[in-house]
């Protein structure tokens, strides 16, 4: 990237169940981020906000300016809501970064917010299903079925029988819950056992309930700024690379469900911009909406070789003290999945890992971190590489 | 066409150049980039490429009850998802299925094992 953009403040509310609307949740996260950045909201020049389902779950659209009015000051700055399914937070972050790279702004607020738990699970399922192809949805495809097809395609490709696949997947959930148990911002702060995961009900074989993340309420915010301003801040984290790609929307058009070319493309862009490779990454937050997707993200982002990702948790490689620490927040499985905010949580968490002040399991002295944020059935992918001061 | 005649009729993209076919709407061929045409074709049968038992049907398919989601390669070359609700225990990869119901409005494709 020609100019440099930094994260100078992060804020997250605890993921879980909220009694306040999504715009108020985001206002709280924003105030935490501003405090962290040691700046006043009057300095913010624009708001880029990720949110997916407020029109369904809260009967409220146009929530970006509503966030500004909820904060109450500086209400006339430009604001926009981005909707790219589960990648909305990552896309909002990227657009904020691009707005600074364009030279138009020097300091912006970005992030995401979602409130899903005030309505019934069935209503949330219906809302979420709109993020996949409508024709395929009508033809009986569900999110759970999609991830089952993905897991089966992966197992066929790598010669795994169903019981072995389920056990290896369970070990990813166990790892993420172990990490999430010490994250005070996580939805589920508890460890789980192999027996618990394996005994959980099958949603769509081979996928079980404990392979899947919860729906969460939550909001996360970041203050981004130009290099000139960042140089005056106490702990800037640099945005070194940002890639985005789209995947084929209809699933039936995809030749191989065990891999997502959009992740590979976005990762390649991010690595090229950063001038680094997968071996240089010290810590990662990957989009484990279902644990098989952590495997796909590991392999398609190059952090693991093809066929190795599935063994990464069993071999402890992706544990906080392993050689590829992944989802030290607990990931979507344990930290939670406030859909439009998830990408923003990942970026806050990696920024804190690089600063050394993450409030949970920490990677050992990381210099470079990576996030993979994926929307819908893999149709939107944002890969971001962050570097600590000195890069 | 009455409802019975509609069974097995799908709307698909067919490339004017390389004849590539897809079950989703497109303007240009993803294989060769040449323009194509959306056509309605009647299919007689297909082969199951993969399947998933859906134990908890979504709201839009509650009326079906539990069913098997199938990914089918049709005899016109097109792949698409469909539903098997009759004789689900006969579903297996490689099994030939025939269209049994099709609702043009709701896009619900039902197949049954041959």
What's the topology here?
The complex is a heterodimer of chains A (391) and B (114).
Chain A: E1 5-12, H1 22-37, E2 47-50, H2 54-57, H3 63-71, E3 79-82, H4 88-101, E4 107-114, H5 121-129, H6 134-138, H7 143-157, H8 162-180, H9 194-199, E5 202-204, E6 207-208, E7 218-226, H10 227-230, E8 237-246, H11 261-274, E9 283-285, H12 291-300, H13 331-334, H14 342-355, E10 368-375, E11 380-388
Parallel strand pairs in A: 2-3, 2-4, 9-10
Antiparallel strand pairs in A: 1-7, 1-8, 4-7, 5-6, 8-11, 10-11
Chain B: H1 3-6, E1 9-15, E2 21-22, E3 36-42, E4 46-54, E5 67-74, E6 79-84, E7 96-103, E8 108-113
Would you mind describing this structure in some detail?
- Helices cover 37% and strands 17% of the residues of chain A.
- By secondary structure, chain A is an alpha/beta fold.
- Chain A has a domain at 5-120 and 215-230: Peroxisomal Thiolase, Chain A, domain 1 (3-Layer(aba) Sandwich).
- Chain A is globular.
- The model of chain A has no long low-confidence stretch (mean pLDDT 97).
- Chain B has a single domain, classed as OB fold (Dihydrolipoamide Acetyltransferase, E2P) (Beta Barrel), CATH 2.40.50.
- Chain B is built from 1 helix and 8 strands; from the N terminus they run αββββββββ.
- In chain B, strand 7 (96-103) and strand 8 (108-113) form a beta hairpin.
- The longest helix of chain B is centred in the N-terminal third of the chain and has 4 residues, at 3-6.
- Chain B starts with a helix and ends with a strand.
- Chain A binds chain B through residues 122, 125-126, 129, 133-142, 144-145, 148-149, 152-153, 202-205, 248-253, and chain B through 22-24, 30, 50, 52-56, 58-61, 64, 67, 69-71, 79-83, 106-109.
